[in-house]
Amino acid sequence: MSERTWQDKVASWSEEGFSAAEIVSKSRVLRLLKKKYVVKKAYTPSSIVDKQKIGPIFKFVFDSYLEDNQKEGSKAVEEINALFGEKLSPNIVKRIREAQGLGTDGVRYGHSVRMVNRPPRLAFCTHHLSVGTMFTHHVFTDESMVQAGKRGRFCYVLKGDTSSRVKPRYKHPPQLMVWGGISWEGATPLVLIRKGRNVDGPVYQSMLHSSS
């Protein structure tokens, strides 16, 4: 059997008759046991003149980025100067942010299904999967609104906080509704709907027929 992990190695040494002391000396365990761990000193920016303000500034940066994780560093600099009278650079704000575990991640634009709608949708899909429904005579449609708004590529969140990456804001201007569908025969052409257009029953039916 191939030795793929250190556990496999320890097990094989034990099977070969090595004692615990011999196994420790043969592996890196002894070096780990003797290693001295040094607690890294907390980051304290030297550019903050009033050292009593370090704690409040750190808390302000942490709270403000939890509230708006796409805040620009220059804006945080202005707010710190206005609230605390300390002139910091965007790089210092970045280091304060990172020292508290707020790393850089990519923004994911989209939306999630509301909790109240998830059980019936899951039940619908599970049922039709179980009975083998092919949906050969159905058209599944959806629409998406695009409009001007705040957007960005990056956000600053705690490690593992994936939900804060999802932004409900739309990415592309101007405001326009894009409608489309897909069926057994393939995708439908896209329909562009202007703002203020009332999509009632007849309009919706005409869209389906013109796209089929």
UniProtKB/TrEMBL annotation:
GO terms for molecular function: nucleic acid binding. It comes from the Eukaryota. InterPro entries: RNaseH_sf, Transposase_5. This is Uncharacterized protein. The lineage of its organism: Eukaryota, Metazoa, Ecdysozoa, Nematoda, Chromadorea.
